Amino acid sequence: MKNLFAILSLAILLTSCITEDVPDNTPKGNFEALWNIIDTQYCFLDYKHEEYGLDWDEVYRRYQNRLTDDMTKKELFQVLSEMLEELRDGHVNLVASHETSQYREWYDNYPANFVDTIQRIYLGKDYAIAAGMKYTILEDNIGYLYYGSFSAGVGESNLDEILNELSICDGLILDIRNNGGGMLTLSERLAARFTNEKRLTGYICYKQGPGHNDFSSPEPVYVEPATDRVRWQKPVAVLTNRRAYSSTNDFVGKMKEMPKAIIIGDKTGGGSGLPFSSELPNGWSVRFSASPMYDPDMKHLEFGIDPDIKVDMTSEDMSKGIDTIIETARIYLRNHKE
Amino acid sequence: MKRTLLSIILLCLCLLKVQAQGDSLQNHRYVTRATLYGIGHTNLLDTYLSPMEYTGAELRILRENMRMTKYMDGKVSRQSLFQANVSLTENKAATGSEFSFLVNWNLAYHYQFPINENLTLMAGPNLDLNGGMIYNFRNSNNPVNAKAYANLGASGIAMYRFRIKVHPFLLRYQLNVPLLGIMFSPEYGQPYYEMSVSKDWGKNICFTSLHNQPSVRQFITLDFPIRKTTLRVGYICDIQQAKVNHLKSHAWSHAFMIGFVKHFQLFNPYK
Fold it and tell me: Does residue B82 register a pLDDT over 90?
């Protein structure tokens, strides 16, 4: 009896509060909170130090000098946004009620390589739309399928119908230019239509602790064939540009491992870190890359995937309403007819 | 680790079973059931979702089933407590919201120590099972964190019976403290997507004890008669906390409860 009450008493004594130390809601406090979130949870600090010399401690010193106690929230937002731009990551955003910060140089500094008015010429007037996918058959019996967002929830039966419709074609152009990403599960679902066997397509890690290198063991990621579903058995050309980002980048990485797929166009935009969210004492939300993904050789995909055939749209072609990248894919598929 | 903990839980239940071979008293057929409904305030922290605390209102239901058993010469009671609570909370800046849902089932066996004719103290082991989730409305790939944990703990009750005029009153205080358990938790920055592709969930099952799960549930209730029924009013202080896999969480809830108590006797119509 006495022992039991002693245990209960001890238990009450040990019931201390578990709380998180959060800085004050001041410019300095919000700056500290944001810097700490990135310092402890962002997954590419060491990789980016190797790539372009990012030094997050030095960033702290440089930006804290720009803080003042009486700065407005817009001024603070400007300083914090610029600090986040040092990460050169399209997955990093600071979200306030008046503005959302975004790093855009991953595509702003490159050719657009996609013109929707020219795409319309290829689609013609009789193209079909299903679950966010536009598709048609080009004059040379090449199927053309455009998927503009991995947020557009395409279902298994949609894919069955579309691939079945295009099955008479000699090859397929799968155009994912300007697809800024969405759901990884849709990337897997689509890639599963292009393989007849289970394939290793990369690895994923996550942070196990706040240290820059506290990563888990890489977990292999496989694409398994879509069983009892329509699977594409002929050559497929995947068209890319810099705005193929995030889940689209992941999809391109998966398609790189498919034997009958070729990647044509420009290097993808990257964005291989699975983003997490957190927030600051003033209520602003921050999104950041938290979980890195790699290719099968454990190489980072954060800054994009090189195409197998590098092509840019030329001004001359564009003036004639010709999409150089689509034309390159048509030539490739005609030459690799089975 | 899981196997060891499971063995300990099974051993405790077996001990109770062995002790159950003793003589029986007929009062094990008396059952007290109570259903209480409550409203309160909760303070949530889950650093997997956000480093900020979220506060707001919660709704809670509690169902209690208590009866005497045959164990240890009929001096052991069995208490089954089922609780469910939902809350809608927001951060201090009122820019983000979280919804939480938690279900708790608590099975306790108390040995009774009558102090005098008014006061009875009760103490014994309890099994504590919990499941639920917290959903953050604006997060990207970490919008939700699932809650699942089981504990073996200690439970104590102080019951004081008194009368005002001829009316019987029952004042009760209960304390449940988890001592040893297992808890599901993602790792520090582990997306649920990774769990879906991984086959190794070893690090997602954590051993817990007082050092990393200092939690406590306290109940104060007063039973009093109104005409032919018994009304129960109460206050619950539910402090659930954990610090595992570099993640901190707490759910501090305070709720005022009200409901009815039913007393009845079980009988076998075929005897």
Answer: yes
